[in-house]
């Protein structure tokens, strides 16, 4: 049993996640209380990560695309730690990145490719309903349909699947955070549209298999 945990909790604990998404522009906020700058690179944080492998715990990281080089360094320096990148690596569309989607995509894709080269990294496909992405579906007169979401998100999700493979990708809802832009049902229908032509085994990996393996679920 891990120190300080009652048996019931110790048997269910699979990993650690803390607030790490940070940007200097005050317009870019995805947490009411942002982390301090430089957290991902701090020695205290890195020291804590090195303890995870000993405890057989994974690390979930929520970072913006501007921080992906730090995430890559963490994964490379800790090959025995299972690192899960949340929300497709946080491509930004606010502040200085407003109206710069194509340029951001190029930078984001390059960093995602570097991460995909590391076998201890998997990626969660979702979280694109946050305002930080710049997809302003919440400003429309009517909520978007699943076809609209699929069209907007396909470049990011398809890129991740192409680079990581279905066995290292998992769909996520990010609810209730994302419900300000669309409903839960519409979200999952959008995911289904994106992978409509995939094989059954690939769909199983994306919708359940990868998560079951990575989080060691029954």
Write the layout of secondary structure elements.
Layout: H1 7-10, E1 15-17, H2 43-54, E2 58-61, H3 68-77, E3 83-85, H4 101-116, E4 121-125, H5 146-164, E5 169-171, H6 184-194, H7 200-214
Parallel strand pairs: 1-2, 2-3, 3-4, 4-5
Helix pairs in contact: 3-4, 4-5, 5-6
What does this structure look like?
- This protein has 218 residues and is α/β, with parallel strands linked by helices.
- It has one domain (15-214): TIM Barrel, CATH 3.20.20.
- It contains seven helices and five strands.
- A five-stranded parallel β-sheet has the order 1-2-3-4-5.
- α3 runs parallel beside α4 and α4 (101-116) packs parallel to α5.
- It is globular.
Number of strands: 5
The low-pLDDT segments are: none
The overall number of domains is 1
In DSSP terms (H or I, runs of 4 or more residues), the helix count works out at 7
């Amino acid at each position: 049993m891990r120190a300080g945990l009652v048996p019931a909790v110790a048997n269910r604990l699979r990993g650690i996640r803390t607030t790490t998404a940070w940007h200097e522009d005050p317009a870019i906020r995805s947490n009411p209380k942002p982390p301090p700058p430089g957290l991902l690179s701090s020695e205290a944080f890195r020291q804590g990560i090195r303890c995870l492998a000993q405890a057989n715990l994974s690390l979930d990281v929520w970072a913006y695309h501007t921080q992906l080089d730090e995430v890559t360094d963490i994964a490379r320096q800790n090959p025995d730690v299972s690192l899960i990148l949340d929300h497709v690596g946080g491509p930004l569309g606010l502040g200085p990145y407003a109206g710069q989607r194509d340029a951001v995509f190029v930078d984001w894709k390059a960093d995602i490719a570097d991460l995909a080269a590391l076998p201890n990294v998997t990626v969660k496909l979702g979280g694109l309903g946050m305002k930080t992405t710049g997809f302003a579906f919440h400003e429309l007169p009517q909520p978007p349909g699943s076809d609209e979401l699929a069209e907007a998100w396909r470049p990011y999700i398809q890129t991740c699947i192409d680079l990581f493979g279905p066995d290292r990708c998992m769909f996520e809802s990010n609810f209730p955070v994302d419900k300000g832009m669309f409903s839960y049902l519409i979200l999952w229908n959008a995911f289904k549209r994106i992978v409509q032509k995939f094989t059954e085994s690939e769909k199983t990996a994306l919708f359940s298999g990868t998560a079951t393996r990575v989080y060691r679920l029954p």
